[in-house]
Amino acid sequence: KAGVTQTPRYLIKTRGQQVTLSCSPISGHRSVSWYQQTPGQGLQFLFEYFSETQRNKGNFPGRFSGRQFSNSRSEMNVSTLELGDSALYLCASRSAGGAYNEQFFGPGTRLTVL
Amino acid sequence: AQKVTQAQTEISVVEKEDVTLDCVYETRDTTYYLFWYKQPPSGELVFLIRRNSFDEQNEISGRYSWNFQKSTSSFNFTITASQVVDSAVYFCALSGETSGSRLTFGEGTQLTVNP
């Protein structure tokens, strides 16, 4: 099975712009979660989508949003970018068998905001 | 609130040494799950193990072993006969009844295995 894929792998944006990141989960996985990783804050949960519905949300401002499509692919959008949004954004998928099933992560999208 | 603490920020060992990575957690959930992930320089988090709160049996997988002790809220990870390829950042994580599938990660431990 192919793993979780994320595109693009690298992005450079300027403050005030918006960005959309994409994640394709492992085939058959219906849950997709997003995490932000920064040197200062570590790994932080953004949100989770399951069957096109947001199931869980972390403590991030409304500038961070996401959605999931019927094929389970997910996108994450950040509007009005700030310098502090520079981070590695990781997507994870898990099978639907249980909320505590292991999550499998993609390679991440490294976003740099100038 | 849930919390995971990995007090060791960096560990450096010489190849073939054994090394233990510490993880201490806090949760009020009765049912919870603990995880270990490895993050090599490529950035991808690689799943290593999942353990639920009702199973305190230690586990061994090749050179890896895990010691789960509810009495001390710890879930430590030992690599036996370390190899250079083990060099990575290792994260301990927790999820539970109140958080669903949301993972709470520790700060991570950077392990460097020198030849």
What would the principal axes of the Cα set say about the shape of chain A? globular
Main beta sheet of chain A, described?
A: 7 strands, mixed
- Biggest interface, CB < 8 A: A-B, 26 and 24 residues
The fraction of residues in strands of chain B falls at over 45%
SS field, number of helical segments of chain B: 0
**N- and C-termini, Cα separation of chain A:** 37 Å
| Cα gyration radius of chain A (Å) | 13 Å
Number of strands of chain B: 12
Pairing-aware structural class of the strands and helices of chain A?
Answer: mainly beta
Shape of chain B: globular
Radius of gyration of chain B over all CA atoms, rounded:
14 Å
Described by its quaternary structure, the protein is: heterodimer
Number of strands of chain A: 11
SSE string of chain B, helices as H and strands as E: EEEEEEEEEEEE
Helix content of chain A: under 10%
The fraction of residues assigned to DSSP E strands of chain A is over 45%
Low-pLDDT regions of chain A: none
Question: Please, could you describe this protein's structure?
Answer:
- The complex is a heterodimer of chains A (114) and B (115).
- Chain A has no helices and 11 strands.
- With 114 residues, chain A is mainly beta.
- In chain A, the strands form 2 sheets. In chain A, strands 2, 4, 5, 6, 9, 10 and 11 form a 7-stranded mixed beta sheet that branches. In chain A, strands 1-3-8-7 form a 4-stranded antiparallel beta sheet, with no helix packed on it.
- In chain A, strand 5 (42-50) and strand 6 form a beta hairpin.
- Chain A starts with a strand and ends with a strand.
- The mean pLDDT of chain A is 94.
- Helix content of chain B is 0%, strand content 53%.
- In chain B, the strands form 3 sheets. In chain B, strands 2, 5, 6, 10, 11 and 12 form a 6-stranded mixed beta sheet that branches. In chain B, strands 3-9-8-7 form a 4-stranded antiparallel beta sheet, with no helix packed on it.
